[in-house]
Amino acid sequence: MSLAVAGARASLLPSPLAASSSRARLLALPPRHRRPHGSLASPPAAGRRRLRVRMARTETTGVAVGFRAPEFELPEPLTGKLWTLDDFEGNPALLVMFICNHCPFVKHLKKDIAKLTSFYMEKGLGAVAISSNSIRTHPQDGPERMAEEAKLFKYPFPYLYDESQEVAKAFGAVCTPEFYLFKKDGRRPFELFYHGQFDDSRPSNNVPVTGRDLSRAIDCALSGQELPFVEKPSVGCSIKWHP
Question: How far apart are CA 35 and CA 39, in angstroms?
């Protein structure tokens, strides 16, 4: 044990003087205020102290200006089809979402993500979701469960499996959910237009889910307008990298 650690531990122990002084104060108390030697302190009154359980939160990180959508080729567990970036060449804008099955932040938005993307896909938006979580540590995020989720929530977009995690790394993705909105600018591939949150709603607050931030960004991307607001980072669970 190092001297520093030993000293730190020693400082936590009561000195003889402190113990003597403490005993004197105890004896000075009226009998009804004394506790039997060795008895435990009574628990705090109900409602006096509340413990709040917090979920681990990860925020998206900034992406360089001019970032372009990386190429990918990933399987869709529901159909077995391989999807590539070229499959979305006919769309004026492309939404790439990193999600998973188990994350509370994703669960909070699943139904609304499906509704929002369905609405904008009818207007020409291309959309794809990718799960990059390691199934070594989180088997519930594996391909079979992904197919079940896609069916259950009626995802209108392909939900792809990034087993190697190379696609997540190419995008610089760090959390779920994470949203990358790309648009065409006359060059290939798509250029990043928006990299931010779905809206202000979180599992731990009472803010209604509206999809306001992402829907405003999609409206601008499809209409050729500039983004009229400063994007806020998406907040969620960290991507579960292979150990």
Answer: 6
